[in-house]
């Protein structure tokens, strides 16, 4: 298939590194929240997160934030392509937000690799811990849906980082670490590809090998 | 949520996610301008999109019109677009008075689209629709192109996987004994010497030509060609170098000329670009192709940069233009009746020009890998994902017609492009439109399969024709605001750096006096995006 799943890894003597592409879909509802989110993550369009599963296994996530393109259902195919895992983040203080999350889970299941691992994360746990009456989506309801749809499920706080590590670890444990392919280098430099990196010195090379 | 779109005046509203608008989105991505980027289609890339087979089927239905409805001479007609709005086809005289209405999903740039599917396509290996990504307007990008420099300086290149474009071949019918064959074009001194298919005397002539082209801008060489700059390149090659037919075909193929009559001036520039591009980014190749659908991928990366910079993206959203409001801003109505305001509206010209040529394209999915075409001939060269096959004017068997013939080009894409599953290839054939072009493209496809003796089945075919708008961007004042319309993509088979000028022009328009040209597309890495793969070493 065109979207060849691309987990990539290398094995050292006793260590194993694996890198996976993760699509982070954060549902943003209210304008001011959207804006404050943007400010805090601007520049975070291409984050990485590294998880050590055990002494010999390290998993690195290449995190593709959708940068708000999901807001009007306008996500580009490049996000889905080769994605090994996805985290769909809804807001436990917004009652409609779980429904929107469900719609995106469906979309991911339709567009992405069939073996994509999807996690559902109910965010703003810190807010609810402080003011329990702010909760609009009961944990049991979301958990029941996640079980039914075969998703990992956590309630998290991006602010205090509560359960964030746990979320990534749970995803890492479900990934096919044993089927990893050849070692992967950075984007734009994959085997068989062409690197545009060393663009300096182009002038001195003008004419290339053919300066007939 | 829609209401929030109306609350503010956008610094710019862009309509269409083809390469030009998407590069503009990239250029504006660090500007703090409020950008709303729309597309009437439900896919990115507009005229340069790459589509799954399901999307191709729908696209072909929407572009099945024959020329009648889009006669270039019918300059005063109106037609309904898919949103049911009347699309006024403007003439230059009307430009000032007719309200501009933009971008239904139908445009007159593409037409006569037809899909053909092998009756036993599934049995012969046609995979599921999303396993394919067919480029509507595939172009190779010479390594010397300014586009690559801009992608590097803007840091956007890191999100694109570039693949090497490999050998160029010339088709010849051959004699009865040998049958049709593909001859690889040598493109360096070493290559010319080691090639066995050219006799020694011809090698010397060919070397002379290559040497001349490399140095063609020097005063000495200019005195040879400048006074005849507008004559056909092929005539010059005969008169000045006594170059024989098959080598002439090779030289012409390097220019990717669609009418076979490229002028001396343009031809020399094209061959010079070809030769001096070899080796710039690695040994053995002169051009690159972005994985997963070519230019479409760069458009997506541009839009992604726009979104990361705070731009709002909406697909599937046609827009029409209303009267300027009291503050002189442009008002736009989205398909869902939401009304928005902007001081700059950036869109694409949708109406083809009367003087434009039209090209015919045939895209074929074939269950064969053509491995011999993808061999490399330079040490350390990456395995190419794209090769070029040229069918010179008059080279095809049943070409013997009274009308003058034009060359046909085939880009053969391996599954490394991500455009088809492993074990298959996508072949993109292009020629200038003639009354016979649909038939001729099929003939060329069959000839290619015969020449490679590939026991291949054609599983799926898409035929269509592509025209162009006027070649200049249009700038129209509306109240105190401005409408800027990009020209449609050029029909060339290699990316044309000329189209980057309009992007910079639009950027200046939106940035007004705030910038100096040096700042165009010059960005630092965003935090968290720099290379940190070293932890793996």
From TrEMBL, chain A:
Region (Disordered): 179-212
Entry superkingdom: Eukaryota
Organism for this UniProt entry: Xylaria bambusicola
UniProt xrefs under PANTHER family: PTHR47978
Gene Ontology molecular functions: GTP binding; GTPase activity
Membrane topology: Lipid-anchor
Record-linked Gene3D superfamilies: P-loop containing nucleotide triphosphate hydrolases (3.40.50.300)
GO cellular-component term (any): plasma membrane
GO biological process assignments: protein transport; vesicle organization; vesicle-mediated transport
Cited InterPro entries: P-loop_NTPase, Small_GTP-bd, Small_GTPase
Family classification: Belongs to the small GTPase superfamily. Rab family.
UniProt entry keywords in alphabetical sequence: Cell membrane, GTP-binding, Lipoprotein, Membrane, Nucleotide-binding, Prenylation, Protein transport, Transport
Source species taxonomy: Eukaryota, Fungi, Dikarya, Ascomycota, Pezizomycotina
Presence of the UniProt keyword Protein biosynthesis in the record: no
Official protein name in the record: GTP-binding protein ypt5
Chief location: membrane
Subcellular location: Cell membrane
UniProtKB/TrEMBL annotation, chain B:
Source organism, top-level taxon: Eukaryota
GO CC term (a single one): nucleus
Gene Ontology terms describing biological process: small GTPase-mediated signal transduction; vesicle-mediated transport
Disordered, as annotated region: 63-101
MF terms in GO: GDP-dissociation inhibitor activity
Compositional bias (Basic and acidic residues): 87-96
Family as reported in the entry's similarity comment: Belongs to the Rab GDI family.
Name of the protein in question: Rab proteins geranylgeranyltransferase
Annotated organism of origin: Xylaria bambusicola
């Amino acid at each position: 298939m065109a979207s060849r799943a691309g987990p990539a890894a290398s094995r050292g003597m006793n260590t194993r590194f694996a890198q996976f592409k993760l699509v982070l879909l954060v549902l943003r509802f209210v304008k001011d929240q959207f804006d404050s989110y943007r400010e805090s993550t601007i520049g975070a369009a291409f984050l990485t997160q590294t998880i050590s599963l055990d002494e010999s296994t390290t998993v690195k996530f290449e995190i593709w934030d959708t940068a708000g393109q999901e807001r009007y259902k306008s996500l580009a195919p490049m996000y889905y392509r080769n994605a090994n895992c996805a985290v769909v983040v809804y807001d436990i203080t917004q009652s409609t937000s779980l429904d929107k999350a469900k719609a995106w889970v469906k979309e991911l299941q339709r567009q992405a690799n069939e073996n994509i691992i999807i996690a559902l994360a109910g965010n703003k746990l810190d807010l609810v811990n402080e003011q329990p009456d702010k909760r609009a989506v009961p944990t049991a309801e979301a958990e029941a849906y996640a079980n039914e749809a075969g998703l990992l499920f956590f309630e998290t706080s991006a602010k205090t980082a509560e359960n964030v590590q746990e979320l990534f670890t749970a995803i890492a444990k479900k990934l096919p670490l044993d089927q990893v392919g050849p070692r992967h280098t950075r984007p734009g430099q994959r085997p068989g590809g062409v690197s545009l990196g060393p663009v300096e010195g182009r002038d001195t090379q003008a004419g290339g090998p053919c300066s007939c | 949520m829609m209401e929030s779109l109306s609350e503010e005046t956008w610094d710019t509203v862009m309509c269409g996610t083809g390469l030009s608008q998407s590069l503009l989105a990239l250029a504006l991505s660090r500007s703090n301008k409020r950008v709303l980027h729309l597309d009437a289609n439900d896919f990115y890339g507009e005229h340069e999109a790459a589509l799954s087979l399901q999307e191709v089927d729908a696209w072909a239905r929407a572009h099945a019109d024959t020329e009648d409805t889009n006669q270039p001479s019918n300059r005063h007609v109106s037609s309904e677009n898919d949103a049911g709005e009347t699309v006024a086809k403007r003439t230059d005289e009307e430009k000032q008075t007719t309200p501009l209405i933009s971008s239904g999903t139908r445009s007159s740039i593409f037409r006569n689209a037809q899909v053909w599917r092998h009756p036993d396509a599934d049995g012969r290996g046609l995979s599921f629709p999303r396993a394919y990504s067919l480029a509507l307007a595939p172009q190779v990008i010479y390594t010397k192109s300014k586009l690559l420099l801009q992608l590097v300086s803007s840091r956007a290149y890191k999100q694109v996987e570039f693949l090497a474009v490999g050998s160029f071949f010339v088709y010849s019918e051959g004699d009865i004994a040998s049958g049709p064959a593909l001859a690889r074009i040598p493109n360096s001194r070493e290559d010319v010497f080691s090639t066995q298919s050219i006799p020694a005397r011809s090698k010397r002539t060919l070397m002379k030509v290559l040497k001349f082209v490399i140095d063609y801008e020097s005063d000495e060489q200019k005195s040879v060609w400048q006074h005849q700059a507008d004559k056909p390149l092929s005539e010059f090659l005969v008169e000045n170098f006594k170059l024989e037919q098959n080598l002439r075909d090779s030289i012409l193929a390097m220019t990717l000329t669609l009418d076979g009559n490229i002028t001396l001036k343009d031809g020399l520039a094209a061959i010079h670009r070809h030769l001096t591009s070899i080796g710039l980014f690695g040994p053995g190749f002169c051009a690159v192709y972005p994985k997963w659908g070519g230019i479409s991928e760069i458009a997506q990366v541009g839009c992604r940069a726009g979104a990361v910079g705070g731009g709002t993206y909406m697909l599937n959203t046609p827009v029409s233009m209303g009267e300027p409001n009291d503050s002189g801003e442009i008002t736009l109505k989205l398909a869902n009746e939401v009304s928005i305001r902007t001081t700059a509206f950036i869109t694409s010209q949708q109406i083809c020009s009367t003087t434009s040529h039209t090209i015919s394209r045939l895209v074929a999915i074939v269950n064969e890998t053509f491995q011999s075409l993808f061999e490399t001939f330079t040490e350390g060269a990456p395995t190419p994902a794209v090769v070029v096959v040229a069918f010179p004017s008059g080279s095809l068997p049943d070409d013997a017609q009274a009308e003058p013939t034009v060359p046909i080009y085939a880009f053969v894409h391996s599954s490394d492009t991500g455009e088809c599953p492993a074990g298959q290839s996508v072949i993109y054939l292009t020629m200038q439109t003639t009354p016979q072009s649909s038939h001729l493209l099929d003939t060329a496809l069959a000839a290619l399969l015969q020449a490679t003796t590939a026991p291949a089945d054609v599983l799926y075919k898409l035929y269509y024709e592509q025209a162009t708008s006027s070649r200049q961007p249009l700038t129209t004042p509306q109240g105190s605001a401005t409408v800027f319309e990009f020209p449609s993509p050029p029909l060339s088979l290699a990316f044309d750096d000329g189209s980057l000028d309009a992007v910079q022009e639009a950027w200046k328009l939106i940035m007004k006096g705030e910038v100096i040209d040096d700042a165009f597309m010059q960005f630092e890495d965003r935090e968290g995006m720099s290379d940190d793969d070293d932890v793996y070493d």
